[in-house]
Structures are given as C-alpha cells and as structure tokens.
Amino acid sequence: MTKPLVVSIPHSLGREEAMRRLKTGLSRAASSVPMLSVDEERWEDNRMIFRVRALGQGAAGHVDVADDHVQVEVVLPWLLQRFAEAAQAAIRSRGQLLLTKKN
C-alpha cells in the first residue's frame, strides 16, 4: 500500500466556518480543473470523506476539520504518485485560498 499524501493547512476561522467553506470547495475545485472529477463527497461530523478521479485514476481520502487547521489525507494510486508533489502544492494553495479569512 502506498503512503498517504498528508497536507495540514492552518486557519483562524474556527471549525464551523471552515467546514461551511469546505462544503462547497471540493466541487468548485473540481470544476476548475478539467481532468478532475468528484466521485463521492460525504460528511461525517467534522470529516469529509471523498473519492476523486484524475487522468482516469481514482484516489480516495478524507479531510479532518479542527478549530485551527484542516488536515487532508489522500492515497494516490501508483500511476499518480509521480504527481504527488504537484498535488500537495495544489491542495495547500487551494486550501489556503479557501480558508483565508476575509475582512
């Protein structure tokens, strides 16, 4: 089994506001990346469980939302492992945009 890709994104929104923003974030992110589609997205308390598809390959993971950070953990299939660094940077960048507090 491959090692999961883990990204931790700090925020100052509080758990409820971070979850509210994330509930629309995955679908919006997928719509802006043509090769990414969301197969499943479901919430269990403060955890979003998801399955996505990119380049014909499926990946699964979860997002845990805490009061001061969000942790994304995703297992990439071996074919997508070569894109792990790019995926990590994209997750961090999109997450920070989504979780940045607007005044």
Summarize the structure in words.
With 103 residues, the protein is of the alpha+beta class. The longest helix is centred in the N-terminal third of the chain and has 18 residues, at 15-32. It has 2 helices and 5 strands; from the N terminus they run βαββββα. The protein has one domain. It comes from Bradyrhizobium lablabi. Pfam families: PHA_gran_rgn.
Query: How many strands, which pairing sense, and closed or not: the largest β-sheet?
Result: 5 strands, antiparallel
How many helical stretches? 2
Provide the residue-averaged pLDDT.
86
Poorly predicted residue ranges: none
Distance, first to last CA: 43 Å
How are the SSEs placed, and which strands pair?
Blueprint (H helix, E strand, L loop, with lengths): L4 E6 L4 H18 L3 E9 L2 E8 L2 E9 L3 E7 L8 H16 L4
Antiparallel strand pairs: 1-5, 2-3, 3-4, 4-5
Summarize the structure.
This protein is an alpha+beta fold and about 100 residues long. It has two helices and five strands; from the N terminus they run E-H-E-E-E-E-H. It has one domain.
Notable characteristics:
33% helix, single chain, 38% strand, Polyhydroxyalkanoic acid synthase, 103 residues, five-stranded antiparallel sheet, PHA_gran_rgn, 5 strands, alpha+beta, globular, 2 helices
